[in-house]
Structures are given as structure tokens and as C-alpha cells.
Design goal:
This is Cytochrome P450. By secondary structure, this protein is mainly α. Helices cover about 55% and strands about 5% of the residues.
Length: about 450
């Protein structure tokens, strides 16, 4: 049975990749039955090496990776093409990669999104609205989120002033706990069962979706569930078990919201996220109220949105924190100057957004960590709304995905002096020398962690 599944999947993989290949765009290595299967396999186990091989072979143009979101993914190498992609408005849109990853999960765990509904209706706009709302009230959120971080630090098992903990797991634990405060409130942000389920669900999704992308959509309904379990064997990342735990807590919290909303005191009054007297609105409550009171979304869609937000926020933030923790562990000489800056600025301004913006050393340190440890080898994802003819004459079919090899670009000697060396204050020095776009959130052709152009996130 297993052999038959492997054979069917392999044949379907090659047929899908060759049928959806972009005309005139070479593959990273070559285009043949075994080479395409090899490239799919290489992308799953070590995507950056395959991207590097393609970049070295086609440094002045573009190449295709036979990885199916819906169509083959084209990687753009040439600066002129990247600039061209940056400014496209009507021809290309951002596919929000984490939404596409969740849709892969919907094939094997139905109920999160409307059947055959494409991207979730609310996922196109809600993340941006929530980001803006949370940022607007971040000063009010920060004290409680800091306490959540301290609570996670207290879980460390210190012996003789030292502890042995993995940076990756610890980063996920910190972000899951502090982020859950804004998502579902203070009580669940301290619930160990809920927090473990959040981490296990997200890590299981990351592993599973990398393999699910290898399976054509029409096959997922038949073998998707088998693959999702196969890919997480031997780990604690059981998505199905963690999903049950998350839904149990979501359902209980929703019942509490419902009781409070329709109590005699409130009588259906909605929470206002812009209310200065009540700024710490739980995101789940806000979404739930919008669903129940406005009859705008189904409860299943609200749950799908919660999983989308958890994945997008925790995955991207935890990966950035992981890089910072790893570099601090390797280079303790940075701890003292960073701590001095934090103490001096907080003493004057308190734990506020403006205070964080004033920490130029911390900003530079984090940006250098992101430069060398980006959350993905590819960024600036776009999808063609209709057939697109690039300036070099290549025609990309409607539905084709494009991306930029940011992991390689951020290590080029043409962009950075000694690019493989870690210099935590590199960007402070660049600013002092008159360079622009040197803050963590600044985007440029040589720093593409968050994408670039009109569709940057």
C-alpha cells in the first residue's frame, strides 16, 4: 500500500510539475522524471541548497523550483527583475504564504475554512486590521506581555547560574506565551496545556505543509491525512491531538464571550478595540463578536482566522527571536551594551513603543540576526493575476508564483562587507556613515526579510 502511494504520488508530482512549468524558465537543475522528483525532495529537506544551486547557475536571470503552491514557483535573481516585481500593482498580488500553508492543512483537517472557498474571506484584510489595532494600543499591552515573558523565564531550570535549554524551543515558548495574552487573554496565556498545544500545532503544520506542497491538490483528499501523520512520526507535533485541545479551549472561551455579551448588563454591546478605557481587547473576542453580532462570518471561519494569526505571528516572531537568542549565546559580549541601552531608555521613557523605537543598538542587533537568520530562504512572494511578460521576454502564466532568494542576497559581498561575519552593530555604523534604510523595518533590495514594494508585509 505504502509503495503504491509513493509511486502514484511521484508520477503525479512529475506530471503536475511539467504541466504547470513556466515556458522559457529553466529548472534549478534539469527537467526530467527523476531530476524533478529529486528537486522536490531537496526542497523539502534542504530548500536553501537547491535555491543556491539555481542561483549560481542562473545568477543574472530566473529559474523555477518545481514546488507547487498551485503553480511552479519562479525565483527571480536579477536586480532589475526584482525592482520590476517590487513595483507591480495590477499584475501581481501577495499570496500571504502562511494563508496558503493553512490551506494545505485544510485538505486534511476540514472545517477551518469554507469548502472550495479559496483563501479565507476574512484572511485577506483582518491580519492588517489587527496588526494596526494592536500596534495602536501596544503601550497598554506591553506591561502584561512583559509579565508573560518573565513568567516564561521563571520556568528555566537554573543550576549554578546556568541552564540548558534549546534556543528554538525557548523562543517559541516565549512568543506563544506573550502572544497568547493578546490573542486569548491572560488566563489562557498561563495555561500550560493550551500553550503546548499552540506550539505543537504550529510546528506540526510547518513540517506537514512542506511535504503537502509536494502533493497535487487532487491527491490530497485521498492521501493528505496519511502524509500529515507520517511526516510528524517520532515528534510531539501531533496536529490532530493539539487541534482538539485548541478547539476545546476556543469553545470554552467562546461560551464565556457569549454569556458576557448577552448578559443583562451588556445586552449585546460590542467590544470596541479603539476604546481607550478598555484597550486590551482579546483578538479572539473581537473576532467572535464580529461573527455573532454582525452575522458576518461563521464560527468555523473565526477559528480558521485564529489559527492563521497564531501561525503568522508566532512562526515569524519566534524565528526572529531564535536567531537573537542563538547569537547572544554565541556572543555574550553584546549583552552588556544592549542591557545598558534598554535600562537607560526605559528609565526615561518607560516600556513604550517610542522607547523601543529609540533603541538603535537593539534595532541593529535584531536586523543583523534577521539578515543572517531569515525566517525563509525566499521572500517577496507574488502571484500573477493574469499572464505576465517580464522585461527579459519571459512569460509567466496566470497563477504562477514568484519569489526572491532573500537568504542569498543578504549574504552577498556586493551588498555587505564581510557578509558572512556577524556584526551586531553593523546597521548603526551604516546609519552613521549616511546610509538609509538601516532600521529593522526598513526594506531595500539588499534586505528582503519582509518582502519589498507595494505588497510588503
Amino acid at each position: 500500500m505504502a509503495v503504491a502511494i509513493v509511486v502514484i504520488t511521484s508520477v503525479a508530482l512529475v506530471l503536475t510539475s511539467t504541466r504547470l512549468a513556466n515556458v522559457g524558465t529553466p529548472f534549478a537543475t534539469s527537467k526530467g522524471f527523476f531530476s524533478i522528483i529529486y528537486q522536490h525532495y531537496r526542497f523539502v529537506v534542504d530548500g536553501p541548497s537547491l535555491i543556491k544551486k539555481g542561483y549560481e547557475k542562473f545568477p543574472n536571470g530566473l529559474f523555477e523550483i518545481p514546488r507547487t503552491f498551485r503553480f511552479g514557483q519562479v525565483v527571480l535573481c536579477k536586480l532589475e527583475l526584482i525592482e520590476e516585481l517590487k513595483n507591480l500593482r495590477s499584475t501581481a498580488v501577495s499570496p500571504e504564504p502562511w494563508i496558503d500553508q493553512l490551506l494545505q492543512i485544510s485538505h486534511v483537517m476540514p472545517g477551518y475554512f469554507p469548502r472550495d472557498g479559496g483563501w479565507p474571506k476574512i484572511a485577506k484584510t483582518t491580519p492588517g486590521v489587527i496588526r494596526a489595532t494592536v500596534y495602536k494600543h501596544l503601550d497598554q499591552y506591553m506591561p502584561s506581555m512583559n509579565e508573560a515573558i518573565l513568567a516564561q523565564l521563571r520556568t528555566l531550570d537554573l543550576k549554578f547560574g546556568e541552564c540548558n535549554v534549546g534556543c528554538f524551543d525557548f523562543a517559541y515558548s516565549i512568543v506563544a506565551r506573550s502572544g497568547s495574552f493578546a490573542m486569548v487573554g491572560s488566563r489562557l496565556s498561563q495555561d500550560e496545556e493550551y500553550l503546548n498545544a499552540v506550539k505543537e500545532h504550529i510546528l506540526g503544520m510547518i513540517v506537514t505543509t512542506r511535504v503537502q506542497f509536494m502533493v497535487p491538490d487532487w491527491l490530497k483528499r485521498y492521501i493528505g491525512g496519511f502524509i500529515s501523520r507520517l511526516t510528524t512520526l517520532g515528534t510531539n507535533w501531533d496536529m490532530h491531538a493539539s487541534r482538539k485541545i485548541l478547539l476545546k479551549h476556543f469553545d470554552a472561551r467562546a461560551a464565556e464571550y457569549h454569556t458576557e455579551i448577552f448578559s443583562d448588563d451588556n445586552k449585546g454591546i460590542e467590544t470596541n478595540p479603539d476604546d481607550a478605557d478598555n484597550p486590551q481587547v482579546e483578538i479572539f473576542r473581537w473576532l467572535y463578536e464580529s461573527s455573532v453580532l454582525r452575522e458576518k462570518w461563521t464560527y468555523a471561519e473565526v477559528i480558521g482566522e485564529m489559527l492563521l494569526l497564531q501561525f503568522a505571528f508566532i512562526y515569524t516572531t519566534a524565528y526572529g527571536l531564535y536567531g537573537a537568542l542563538a547569537e547572544l549565546a554565541r556572543r555574550p559580549e553584546y549583552i552588556a551594551p544592549l542591557r545598558e541601552e534598554i535600562n537607560a531608555i526605559f528609565a526615561k521613557m518607560g516600556p513604550t513603543v517610542l522607547a523601543c523605537d529609540a533603541m538603535v543598538l537593539m534595532d541593529s542587533f535584531l536586523k543583523e540576526c534577521q539578515r543572517l537568520h531569515p525566517p525563509a530562504a525566499l521572500s517577496a512572494h507574488r502571484v500573477c493575476v493574469h499572464d505576465l511578460k517580464l522585461s527579459n521576454g519571459t512569460i509567466l502564466k496566470q497563477g504562477s508564483h514568484m519569489a526572491v532568494p532573500s537568504g542569498l542576497i543578504q549574504r552577498l559581498s556586493t551588498n555587505y562587507e564581510n557578509p558572512n561575519d556577524f556584526d551586531g552593530f553593523r546597521f548603526v555604523k551604516r546609519t552613521a556613515a549616511g546610509a538609509k534604510n538601516s532600521r529593522l523595518v526598513d526594506l531595500s533590495p539588499d534586505y528582503l526579510v519582509f518582502g519589498m514594494g507595494v505588497h510588503a508585509w
